[in-house]
Amino acid sequence: MPLPHRPALVAAFAAVALLAACGGDDDTAVAPVTPPATAPVPAPTPSTATRPQTSDADAAALVASRYLAQAGALGADGSTLTTDHWAPPPVGDVATFTPTVVVAADGSGTHTTLQAAFDAVPAAAPGAARTYILVKPGTYRGTACANGKAPITLYGAGTDASAVTFVDGHYNAEAKAVGTPANPCNPNASGATHGTSGSASIAIYSDDFHARNVTFANDAMQAVDHGAGYPAGASGSGGAQAVALMTQGDRLVFENVRVVGHQDSLYVKTPNTGTVSRAMFRDCHVEGDVDFIFGRGTAVFENCEIRYVSTRLPVGASTAMLAPSTSPLHPHGMLFVRSRFTADAGAAAGKTYLGRAWDEGVNRTTNPYVAGTSPNGQLLIRESEIGAHVQPEAPWTTSTSGRDWSADGNRLAEYRNTVLRP
């Protein structure tokens, strides 16, 4: 996402950025049966102005089934969404799949690149059969886009998601020739740089897409070492946005996938600001540093690891990990449930913010924030484990347009998380 005014973060950069006895009807003694152990329910964290906690009553409605129940056009007041009560299916046991297409870098499959495999999938049509794309182990460099395709299942045969990696290294400020497309799904042909959407390694603009056992990566900032060594046009204050996976289709399911990058790793978006699209992430791993899960799409993360990596930023840097830009007309943005917020060994304790609102399209000078009209990101983290790298007293920070954080003005909250203190 773009790097608009962010006073709290810029200042930090400059300063160096957890679920009886029995007997028979005879006289023989029967040993007691020990009930299975259950995970203790964490005690509620007191709700404060800077760390608001969702009530039990509200939390009962803020569950995956509610987040994923509606999609489509919001209309003028959010009342025109289509209610289909979508229940994301499991991707399935890959050992039972019969591949339609096989991608192999060594030429032993039907295609050597992911884009060629996507191109071979028929266009979306009512009742279209699902195409199964098996990818053999390897690292596949290059951008790829699935746009308007029939249902696809993309998968690796093994459970090690890192064995199949799709990666490229484009970034926001990277120069390109005007008239040349940046990304097949988001060409930005008129631009002289790639832009954030144009930086995406893999873009999924097709509905009913499933993926399992693969990694999506962007390594544009891999060589940057604690603020030094940025590629041309990028710096710690702008231009370094580099998307690994960008989603725009509806009813997307990702299982045992890894999304790896630095700033803006996972972009969950929609076709436009008046539309709701949904994605489900199960047993996933997403890593990055600044705003590395962001967008206006509705997304549920279940049993995922959300990992902060400190290697690109100055030592001790303070930044925000999550940045939803949910429409104010929609009550459901991002939900993290039974997940783990972790960090690498170099991360400073108590310095990282859980997130902030991305005031998409807002500019203090030319398009100021208007409550009820401008985006107001919605996000709930519940029954998860929050690592000691997270700011313990005030884990939410100033929005991207410079709006001060407030429990009343924002829609970012927690429910029954286990918090590890520094």
How is this fold's topology laid out?
Elements: H1 7-14, H2 56-59, H3 64-67, E1 70-73, E2 82-83, E3 101-103, H4 114-119, E4 131-135, E5 138-141, E6 144-147, E7 152-156, E8 164-168, H5 195-198, E9 202-205, E10 210-212, E11 215-218, E12 245-247, E13 252-255, E14 258-260, E15 266-268, E16 275-276, E17 278-282, E18 285-288, E19 293-295, E20 298-302, E21 305-308, E22 320-324, E23 334-337, E24 340-343, E25 353-355, E26 378-382, E27 385-386, E28 411-415, E29 418-419
Parallel strand pairs: 3-4, 4-7, 5-8, 6-9, 7-10, 8-11, 9-12, 10-13, 11-14, 12-15, 13-17, 14-18, 15-19, 17-20, 18-21, 19-22, 20-23, 21-24, 22-25, 23-26, 24-27, 26-28, 27-29
Antiparallel strand pairs: 1-2, 1-16
Q: What is the structural class?
A: mainly beta
Radius of gyration: 22 Å
The best one-word shape is globular
Major sheet characteristics: 10 strands, parallel
Let me know the number of strands. 29
Low-confidence stretches: 3-40
How big a fraction of the residues is strand?
25-35%
Kindly state the percentage of residues in helix: under 10%
Give the end-to-end Cα distance, rounded to a whole number of Å: 29 Å
Averaged pLDDT: 91
The largest beta-sheet arranges its strands as 3-4-7-10-13-17-20-23-26-28
What is the count of helical runs? 5
